[in-house]
Amino acid sequence: MSDFLVVGGGVIGMLTARELAQSGATVTLVERGLCARESTWAGGGIVSPLYPWRYKEPVTQLATWSQTSYVHLAQDLLEETGLDPELRQKGMFMVSVDDADQALAWAERYRRPMERVDADFLYRKEPHLKPGHRSALWMPEVASIRNPRLGQALRRSLELSPLVELVEHAGNTELLVRDGRVQGVRAEKGEFRAPQTVLAAGAWTAELLAPLGVELPVEPVKGQMMLFRAPVGLVNRVVLLDGRYLIPRNDGRVLVGSTLERVGFDKQTTAEARDSLYRTAIDILPRLADFPVEHHWAGLRPGSPEGVPYIGAVPGIESLHVNAGQFRNGLVLAPASTRLMADLLLGRQPIIDPAPYGLAGRLASN
């Protein structure tokens, strides 16, 4: 029997398992399908919240810690596994921002590099953007990571660890509870037990808790995205306009996203969203019209009130913990969220105050 059982093989679950194993604990990670194939794979990989000044303080705290750790994480994973997560530290432009003054005030308060730049600066950096922008906000330290490759590297890291048992294709799972204490999970592939269980199942976390009478306010929020096969250098930095974005990859591909749809667990793509994303992409970067759309897909984010995740023990139920609800910022917040979870589980000094993320007082009912 392992010391810890982690349910869910996305970036949050895998990094939680990795953090625990690095402390010397043994971990079993159970994933109903394949690791890193849900929102971890489907996201964009910007290592910053979109319009970060519009989020609550708890999100900023997690994001700030995570952003400074990604350089080391990406390098460590490359050295461990030989798989490159492709962290690109090229910066992010935000154009047509209505509340730029609030953004700059936020940046000054939190000492985050941000400045207002003129059109000359913008088009010198990104000459292929649609003409007509007179200024932009520029965050030079914002990075992006190629999330499918990050998922592959994390999975390989766990495979290589002698302290981690990785169980994929486990099928549907349910919690095993006896006398108010969670003992593990029962899955189609068998039963898995541990003294402590962590639910990191993203948008599905609330469904696992519901039979226990716990109503976690985490719901699936569909996001559709699109990928263009473009040449290297067409765009080199993340560009954000009216809530949507372009993200370039090292091989020239350009990702455009994303929609926000509350339609339950439906992951079907739609022609309407495809047309909308295409128009967005061309409006930001007209030359993308010359290149083919390679892929269009959808994923389910774990939506939570104001995007503040749930990290901590489940009140009234022994040995059960949650790390979920990062909403649109799963990749952004993952390093800090999982380090904080590990700190709490191992009795270490937390990296940041855990109180804003605790479940007590934040559940729909207990």
TrEMBL record:
EC numbers: 1.4.3.19
Pathways involved: Cofactor biosynthesis; thiamine diphosphate biosynthesis
Domain of life: Bacteria
Molecular function in Gene Ontology: glycine oxidase activity
Start and end residues of each FAD dependent oxidoreductase domain: 3-344
Keywords on record: Oxidoreductase, Thiamine biosynthesis
InterPro entries: FAD-dep_OxRdtase (IPR006076), FAD/NAD-bd_sf (IPR036188), Gly_oxidase_ThiO (IPR012727)
Coiled coil (UniProt feature): none
Enzyme class, first EC level, given as a word: oxidoreductase
NCBIfam families: thiamin_ThiO
Name of the protein described by the UniProt record: Glycine oxidase ThiO
Organism: Marinobacterium aestuariivivens
Encoding gene (name): thiO
